[in-house]
């Protein structure tokens, strides 16, 4: 985290201003993919209710299962 912020200036710059190409080049692939999905609005939003916080799901269960398979 500190290395990325030190290199690219700020979280704001990384999350909002870096090109997709630079995200993919300089960040771990899943972090870059997550940032790109959020920018594009390609997320699932589960609203909160009765005092429960809502949740934003960036990676679906299938995406998570696929990631788990690539780790082992």
Sketch the topology as an H/E string, one letter per element.
HHHHEEH
Q: How many separate domains make up the residues?
A: 1
Low-confidence parts lasting 5 or more residues at pLDDT below 50?
none
Q: Report how far the terminal alpha carbons are from each other.
A: 25 Å
Distinct helical segment count: 5
Q: What proportion of the residues is helical, as a percent range?
A: 55-70%
Q: How would you write the strand order of the largest sheet?
A: 1-2
Any overview of this molecule?
This protein has 72 residues and is mainly alpha-helical. It has one domain. The chain is 61% helix and 8% strand. The protein has five helices and two strands. A two-stranded antiparallel ribbon has the order 1-2. Helix 3 runs antiparallel to helix 4. The chain is globular. It starts with a helix and ends with a helix.
